[in-house]
Amino acid sequence: MTRYLIVGGGLAAASAVEGIRELDPDGEIVVTSAERELPYHRPPLSKGYLAGREQVESVRVHDAVWYRDNRVRYRLGVEAKSVHMGKCSVTLKNGERLPYDRLLVCTGSRARHLNVPGTDVPGFFLLRTLADSTALKAVLKPGVKVVLVGGSFVGMEVAATARGLGAEVTVLEMGQTVYGRFTDPTLSDFFRRYLESHGVVVKTNVRVARIKAAGGKVVGAASETGQEFPADVVVAGVGAEPNTQWLATSGFAIDRGGVVVNLRLETNGENVWAAGDIARFPDPMTRQPRRLEHWDNALAQGKQAGRNMAGAEEAYLHQSAFFSDLFDVTINVLGDTDKPDSVETKGDTALTAPNFTTLYTRGHKLVGAVMVNLASANRAAEFDHLQQGIASGVLPEA
To answer: Which of 301, 303, 320, 321 could be bridged to 19 by S-S, CB 3.0 to 4.6 A?
Structure first.
């Protein structure tokens, strides 16, 4: 009987269990998680769950009965310390050693800390875990002054959710635009105008120098130039960092924080795979190394890694895509939007009923796209058409 060990308790881990059980109904599966929660979906943490529209049960990937029915031994609140590939074992921080025949590392990411004074004061939040979202939800009320530090996806989603709950929201972005990763002024300008049309104050070129406190709680944020922004709550959304520090002495090939894997998601260690946020994998379209921190990637890679652990030996060929919601607008991001040669926006960018697509090309080939439309619109056919175009590198017809 094969002993499968999965280190990491997120979506990739749950998907890996599914993949293993598709091919091996009998193997022993042990999952260790540093968190004390069964795997859950992270997108609702800044949207539906944070807004109170979804409950804990609805954000879990599977309930406890599912893991029991699939004979999974789940160990919560257990943190790994290192991997000993020569002895096929993982050492936990409590000193215990867990043996394996097949190992998957999928320890995900942690929120990047804002390295300024005052972040230890009540009223300052990071958002990464279910516990983080639960704590933040408790203080988001009508009239509360919220400052969001960072103009990327999580920060913008929290800004929209907080505003929808009646909070007074200000976004502070150190760069020239929000959603700067899209590298397109038209797109960034649309999102700024859209946020402002819903009452969110957006300030760019603002670098926060400290979190202000008085009476043992947050009262605002101050910039390097001396600007002050009153706040009851400050939320930092300044990116994430892969949880690979515990693997530093285990012999894995690690590049820019990611565990290097091949097309089958295998690491340089025998019978060891990696998936999700920590995996630096060959992009199926460009074959260039890439690391992604998105729901879709964790879901697909986890399943594929599990199947390969059980003997499938299949290449990971899933095309990247992820989604976001901002008030009543849906955003779908396909392929690769980094470092394009050219960017073109087609469609209607009006704030009242936006319906447009931004195309990213490199070397005269389509490599990525961003679709923006009202949540009520169905653009599934265009989504599929663009995915096909990215796979072939062919621009869609006008």
So the answer is: 303
Q: In this structure, which amino acid lies at residue 24?
A: D
* Cα(359)–Cα(361) distance, integer angstroms: 7
Does residue 398 surpass a pLDDT of 60?
no
Other CB atoms within a 10 A radius of the CB of residue 257 amount to 15
SS3 at position 295: helix
Pairing of strands 365-374, 329-335: antiparallel
- Following DSSP, what letter does each residue of 51-103 receive, concatenated? HTSS-HHHHBSS-HHHHHHTTEEEEET--EEEEEGGGTEEEETTS-EEE-SEE
Tokens of 108: 């995900």
CATH code, domain carrying 143: 3.50.50.60
Rounded Cα distance, 241 and 150, in Å? 15
Give the 3-state secondary structure of residue 281: strand
CA contacts within 13 A on the Cβ side of 208 = 29
**What is the residue type of 339?**
K
Number of Cβ within 10 Å of residue 351's Cβ equals 12
Give me the pLDDT at residue 287, please: 77
Report the DSSP pairing between strands 329-335 and 228-230. Answer: unpaired
Total domains in the chain come to 3
Q: What is the pTM of this model?
A: 0.96
Instruction: Return the percentage of the chain with pLDDT > 90, whole number.
Output: 92
Q: What would the two tokens of residue 89 be?
A: 């074992």
pLDDT value for 86: 96
Q: Would you say 159 and 169 are in contact if contact means Cβ atoms under 8 Å apart?
A: yes
Check the CA dihedral 272-276-280-282 and report its sign. positive
Verify that 41 and 76 share a domain, yes or no.
Answer: yes
